[in-house]
Design goal:
The chain has 3 domains: 103 residues, 3-Layer(aba) Sandwich (Rossmann fold), CATH 3.40.50.2300; 74 residues, Orthogonal Bundle (Helix Hairpins), CATH 1.10.287; 158 residues, Histidine kinase-like ATPase, C-terminal domain (Heat Shock Protein 90), CATH 3.30.565.10. Helix 6 packs parallel to helix 9. It is elongated, with a radius of gyration of 31 Å. 49% of the residues lie in helices and 20% in strands. It is an alpha/beta fold and 368 residues long. It is an enzyme of class 2 (transferase).
């Protein structure tokens, strides 16, 4: 909301002399639009949705000013409505004020100061109301996220904990080492899911609250550090993990955000493999060119159905029930990319695999 621009005011009156006089008087203070009838007024409201104040004469040929404002409020509720009236019987006008059709009324004959003061008050009311609407939207969004988070806690934290408790209870009555190893593997998998959930939750709140810190990034070093975390999973699950980095120029960005993006994409590539596949693969290709970095993460896992592609970056959304994810990872990736002015493309086919292509522009050295 730009408060530095002139306030846009629409004045409606069936007397052309009044319209001309109003525009001549206030054209230097405000951006003035004038209409001789209500259809013309609606055209201005449609063409200029940022009109903040509407003044209308009560005595119009097709309908009264009160009637116009009552109709206008349904379609254009944001502009502040003020009535100009010379009627001695003011009861209908007061009723319109009480019912919220108009903000206030100005009695004829009016003075320049009366109108100017009324417009300034109306603009303050407009700004306050707009800010309140914005805060209500933010509050509703936070409330919706809290509800999803509460559900996620029940599903993604309590589920693995119950698995661990159940495995412990079973282990108390088992002496066979092979059966105990199987239970330990079950507990290990449950703990891994809990750890992933906690990590993604931490990243979510860090992204929401954190400031970006731009520095030079060496992608060979960065990928080497992250890839080390996946080598064990690669070996244990017989996944062919390959990586390539092409970087012949410096690149400046927020390293923490890029690490988080790459880590989440690789986690998905490893987690959503086809268990029965004989040749599993995950490949990451990073190339820096013309002050942009392209990160491509490819797998031949379970893939994503086209019906889910547009929703996978939504908070707590899961595209499959084959694996239990937090529903936070790709949401965090998208949020980080928004802050870095980056973009992400997805190519996927069920039972064939997925490719995520991330493009991030670099920052000029020394910029904030």
């Amino acid at each position: 909301m730009n408060t530095g621009e002139k306030i846009k005011v629409l004045y409606i009156d069936d007397e052309q002399n009044n319209l001309n006089g109003f525009k001549a008087t206030f054209r230097f203070d405000y951006t003035i639009y004038i209409a001789a009838n209500t259809p013309q007024a609606y055209e201005y409201l449609k063409a200029h949705p940022d009109i903040r104040v509407v003044l209308c004469d009560q005595r119009m040929p097709d309908k009264t000013g009160v009637q116009f404002f009552e109709e206008m409020r349904d379609q254009y509720p944001d502009p502040v409505r003020m009535l100009i009236t010379g009627y001695t019987d003011i009861e209908s006008v007061i009723d319109a004020v009480n019912r919220g059709h108009i903000f206030r009324y100005i009695k004829k004959p009016w003075t320049d100061n009366d109108v100017r003061s009324a417009i300034e008050e109306a603009n303050k009311f407009y700004l306050t109301s707009s800010l309140l609407v914005l805060k209500n939207k933010e509050l509703q969004s936070a409330y919706d996220e809290l509800g999803k988070f509460a559900y996620s806690i029940t599903h993604d934290v309590r589920g693995p904990l119950l698995s661990i408790i159940g495995a412990i209870d079973l282990a108390n009555g088992i002496n066979n080492l092979d059966e105990l190893r199987e239970l330990l593997n079950m507990m290990s998998e449950a703990v891994r899911k809990l750890d992933e959930y906690i990590k993604n939750t931490h990243e979510y709140y860090k992204l929401k609250r954190g400031m970006l810190q731009f520095a030079e990034i060496n992608f060979n070093t960065l990928l080497s550090d992250i890839a080390a975390l996946f080598r064990i999973a690669s070996r244990n699950n017989n996944i062919n993990f390959t990586s390539t980095v092409i970087q012949n120029e410096p690149f400046y960005s927020d390293e923490i955000s890029i690490k988080m993006i790459l880590n989440n994409l690789l986690s998905n590539a490893f987690n959503y493999q086809r268990k029965a596949a004989s040749e599993k693969l995950v490949d990451v290709h990073i190339e820096v060119k013309a002050n942009n970095v392209q990160i491509k993460v490819k797998d031949n896992g379970i893939g994503i159905h086209e019906n889910h592609i547009n929703n996978i970056f939504t908070l707590f959304y899961r595209a499959t029930s084959e694996e239990t994810g937090s529903g936070l990872g790709l949401y965090n990736v998208k949020d980080a990319l928004n802050k870095l002015n980056g973009k992400i493309e997805v190519e996927s086919e069920p039972n064939v695999g997925s490719t995520f292509i991330v493009t991030i522009p670099g920052r000029t050295h020394g910029t904030k």
